Fold:
Amino acid sequence: MITITQAPPYLTVQDSGRRHARTFGVPRGGAMDLFALEALNSIVGNPPDAGALEWALSGGSLKFTTDGAFAIGGARARALLDGRDVPPFTTTYAAAGDELEIQQIVGGRFLYLAFAGGIDVVPVLGSRSTYLPGHFGGFEGRTVARGDSLPLGNRPPSIPAAGFSCPAELLPAYTSSVVRVTPGTHADMFDDSAWRIFTETNFLVAHASDRTGYKLNGHPLSHDIGSLPSDPGCQGAIQIPSEGTPIVLMADAPTVGGYPKIAVVSKTDMPILAQRSPGESVRFELITIEQSQRALKRRASDQKTIRSLGAASA
Structure:
C-alpha cells in the first residue's frame, strides 16, 4: 500500500482504458501517454495495462507502507526516494517507510508512477481508469488527495532487478514537435489552402486544453463546411470548428461530434502530443494509413523488447 502525503492538484489512477464501453457512450479514457504507462508497468513486472498513477501540474510526495518496486516516467521530473535521485524508466526498490518526493515536473505534462502489483482499485466497466466527468472509476471516481491510501495488487512473480533501465532508443521522441497524422473522415472537404496551413505552419497548445481535448492556437483553417450530423469520434481525431482552430480529441473526449475532422493523429505519436505543455508548438506531418500501421507495429515491438529485457534482468 502507498499513502499520499502531499498531493499535486491533479492525481488520478489510470490504466489502458475502457476498450469495450464506447457503445454505451463512454470514452476509452485511460492514460494520456499510453506508451509510458505500458513501459513502466513492464519495468516493474506488471501486465502492460495495470493501474498506475497519472500525476500532473506540480510536485508532491507519497510514502510506502510496504516494501516494493516502482518506476516513474513520461514527463521529466526531479524525484527523490529518501534523498536519492530516482532516474526515469528504471526499476527502483523502496522499503516500508520510504518517502518518494516528486520535487518538480521539469518537462512534459503527465508523469506516471507504476508500482509492482499495480494500483488495485475496483474495476468499473472493465477498467481501473478514473473518468472524472462521470465521477466513476479509479479511486472513488475522483482525484487522489492527501491522506489517501491506495492498495497495491499481489507482487508479480518476476520483477526486473533494481537499476534495470529502458534503453533510450526505445522511447518516443518526447522532445519533438512533429506529430504524424493520417487523413480524417472529412479530409476531402478541406481545400489546398487549408491543407497547406495545417501541414506547413506551427500551432501552439492552448491553455484551454485538458484530457478531453487539446485546442491549438495558430493560423485558422478557413472553411465553409458548417455543421455536420454527429458521427463517431476517436482519440486523436482533429476537429475544425467554424472559427478554424483545431481541436485534437484526447483520452476523455466524447464518442461522437459534429465538427469536420481533417485528420487523425497516428496512435504512435499520441504520447508525444499528450506530453506537449500549453504554449509548446506542434507541427503536423501527413502520412498514409499504411505508414501509420508500420509505425505502430514498430512501437509494439519496442514494448515487447522492454518486457523481454526486463524479464531477462529479473
In short: The helical segments are 34-43, 192-200, 270-274, 289-313. The chain has two domains: 2-166, 178-294. Residues 2-166 form one domain.
